[in-house]
Amino acid sequence: MLIIDGKEIARQTTEELKALPNPSKKIAAVFVGDSLASVSFLKQKEKMAKELGILFILYRFSESISEDDLMTAIKEIGGQKTIGGIIVQLPLPKNLNSAKILSAINPAQDIDAMTAQSHVLPLPVGVVESVLRAAKYILRDKVVAVIGRGALVGQPITKWLHGKCKEVLVLHRGSDLNDLRKADLVISGVGKAGLIKIEMLHAGAGVIDFGFDLIGGKIRGDLESDQLLDQPENRLTFYTPTPGGTGPILVAELFRNFYKLNT
Known about the structure:
This protein has helices at 6-18, 36-52, 67-78, 98-102, 123-135, 154-161, 246-262; strands at residues 2-3, 26-32, 56-61, 83-88, 143-147, 167-171, 185-188, 205-209, 213-215, 218-220, 236-239. It is an alpha/beta fold. It folds into 2 domains: 19-109, Leucine Dehydrogenase, chain A, domain 1 (Rossmann fold, 3-Layer(aba) Sandwich), CATH 3.40.50; 123-247, NAD(P)-binding Rossmann-like Domain (Rossmann fold, 3-Layer(aba) Sandwich). The strands form 3 sheets. The protein has a 6-stranded parallel beta sheet with strand order 1-11-8-7-5-6, covered by helices on one side. It has a 3-stranded parallel beta sheet with strand order 3-2-4, sandwiched between helices. The longest helix has 17 residues, at 36-52.
């Protein structure tokens, strides 16, 4: 069983980017509110920007800001000639319509691929490609289950998978997860710790886990990976741990997109 080392994949991506011409433009990150999880994610992005020699500017706004004012601010930030990429850190406070806010991003600066007109691949798709390469996993004859229909993970991955594998099963939190036994590969982005039990999967399945949940101050994924300690070595073909799996790769893919748009 292969445990995917997301930090190592991210390190390799960073080295690839360092070999490219360094973009002269900056990244602007828009952060609304005070979510500790969002602060953690932004610090990871800022750390990688520093390693690559890219200026990372954080714009913070109060949770009380109106949609119109926030959209105006995003457009003004994007109007600066020195800005090559814009991130709107999600989730936004519940009083703000995410789809409406994200529409204010200039597609040419949309390194997160949050707009329909973005010029780069959605980050989760880049992560799946990286994980499959690391696992030397061929999709063509596989049944793939995607758990979660959200705009960030489930929807872009489901769209990308069509035509690349034998069959795509789209499930959600309320689905009968016994259907996972039909899947050779499970990709999950629900964000509910322990949602996927090992006994739900057939022997030799692979798991790519985008889920993120805080339980007792610890980060947990959708896969109940602790159960693997009592399982045979070949119970799964591979899986991404949480933390240290998809998270670091997501950050690396963000910067890959920045380089694509600015070099």
